[in-house]
Amino acid sequence: MVSRQKQNADLVKNYEYAWDKYTKEDMDRVFSFSEGYKDFISKCKTERECVKEFIAIAEKNGFKDLETVIAEGGSVKPGDKLYANNMGKTLALFVVGTQSLEKGMRILGAHIDSPRLDLKQNPLYEDTNLAMLETHYYGGVKKYQWVALPLAIHGVVAKKDGSLVEVVIGEDDDDPVVGVSDLLIHLAADQMEKKLAKGIEGEDLNICIGSIPISTEDSSEKERVKKNILNLLNQKYGITEEDFVSAELEVVPAGRARDFGLDRSMVMAYGHDDRVCAYTSFEALMRIENPEKTCVALMVDKEEIGSVGATGMTSKFFENSLAELMNLMGDYSELKLRRALANSRMLSCDVSAGFDPNYPSVMEKQNTAYLGKGLTFNKYTGSRGKSGSNDANAEYMALLRRIMDKHGVTWQTAELGRVDQGGGGTIAFILAEYGMEVIDCGVPLHNMHAPWEIASKADIYETMRGYHAFLMEA
By CB atoms within 10 Å of each CB, which of 32, 50, 143, 421 scores lowest? Predict the structure, then answer.
């Protein structure tokens, strides 16, 4: 007979701390996994860099380019591994299952863009003997956080001859860094009276990049510092001022990801949102061999500005790639494509807000995520009355509970702050439009959307384990 004490204990859900269950061997795995992630997040600070790195690793693990298979007139069979690359900024990876695609897939979907400063099309100018770059911020940022920081420039320059020049400035130890200046406190009386949102204006986020004038016999020549910068860029990258028009150059925090906390339990990095979920999704898929249902990892762009455009989730890229895959398997029809999407299950892999004891008033402790308590499920996001959210079905949540508990994954549930406090959204609702089951889940963060975000190593590891369990069982 079950004791009443045991019976009562079973009635209460205890969301455990992952650290409490780890053995010495588990701890080694957690910290080892985080080292690989730190290398990735330090190197991949743009969506293009993420796609390039993922493809390089995938090809070493036997993945083939879907376009190449199509061009060579090949076919696809269960167990095959393929990827589809969309403009170098969106990526879909498939491990083909033994069941027909019509019966549905297991999909992990994350985004690989992050808040940042983008250079304008005509960014370079000189003012009072300083060379400057104009920017346009991308995504939801607190603009005051981007001043007085060491910044790096990542991206590409597309030249008229069709060549593509990759640019990374500010990451090597001997590289220079750039930055946005702030107003000294001694002269900031008026600035300090402004609301926080207006303390730094968007048009004032200009990057200082140099102060030495080019050598010339005529010292009265105009824009000599600007010309010197152009000369340096031309020497290193072979580009001219006009090439900025066809460039995608992103200004991001300079420097590597670092261990955070005296116990090294956390990771401080730029772009956890949402590359931490992209990396854990990718690593989960790399561990899948010969599944029953086709497993997919989907990495998309433009989530931070509404998932729009040719590389955002609202584009037809994923649907088109799936149609091509079904055609290679000799099993394509419009109806089967619709059934494949409707019968699928998806995790919308995106970060959540972790409870911060410095700011407790914006959270409701009963329904918030905590660093160290593992993979976080957000049944709904949205704002106010759940506006704009994908509210997942109770039956789907029950299925995921069974899967996570079966595999010993540490997990928790949360809302994104107090009711009427704010809110947010993900790509979940876009895939849900096909009729598939979708729920948001990922790693809880401190400092979300700040230049340097904080994540728990335990949560990163448990998230990968949870994604892997989903691919095997859902």
Answer: 32
